[in-house]
Specification:
Helix 6 packs antiparallel against helix 10, helix 8 packs antiparallel against helix 9 and helix 9 runs antiparallel to helix 10. The chain has a two-stranded antiparallel ribbon with strand order 1-2. The radius of gyration is 18 Å and the shape is globular. The protein has 226 residues and is an all-alpha fold. It starts with a strand and ends in a 12-residue tail after the last helix.
Amino acid sequence: MNRHADGHAETVSTTPWRQRFLAAEFVLVWFGVPALLAWGPWRVLPIPVLWLASAIGLTALLLDRTFDRRTLVDVAAVRTGALGAIARAGLVAAAIAGLTLLIAPDRFLEFPRERPEIWALVVLLYPLLSVVPQTVLYRSLLAHRYRGLFGEGLAMTVAGGMAFGFAHVLFRNGIAPALTLVGGLVLMRTYLGHRSAPLSAFEHALYGLAVFTFGLGRWFYGGAIS
């Protein structure tokens, strides 16, 4: 079941033809397109591509009468779910710090120590420029568009995590997709549990800022994509 923006319930189509179509679309859009962008003979600037894709996705959602627009602006869930998000982010931050010390100890806290002004700018702009459009695409759009294929439980969580992780093949290293696969699973679970894009974005921002602060940001830097 799903609900219109006016609160009326609507049954999600799960016909075999519809499921086959959605499955093919899911593989093509969420895996084929990133692979083409990552390994095609061109230079890709992730932020413009991300914003273009999120604009298309947001338009599709707003034109879909079965989409509950309240999920895009449900800040009440941030108040009720913030402590859980912060607790998970604390565990993630500790893991990121440990991983940095293991694989790149010379880069531990390098960004805030050596370039504090740029680091502060990232802290301010990263949630808006990167987290917000990713939340629209990889939580709001994906969870709504493919609910008839994956449902709203474990299968959707796994699908969202895999799509989010694979998107980071654009950075052409193994660390970014691996970390974002795990993060994507948690963030999709948060979104499905609270139906709040703002809460998911809040948690996502905490994870990303931990990555840039503790020293793994070089593996997520768009300027490295050639």
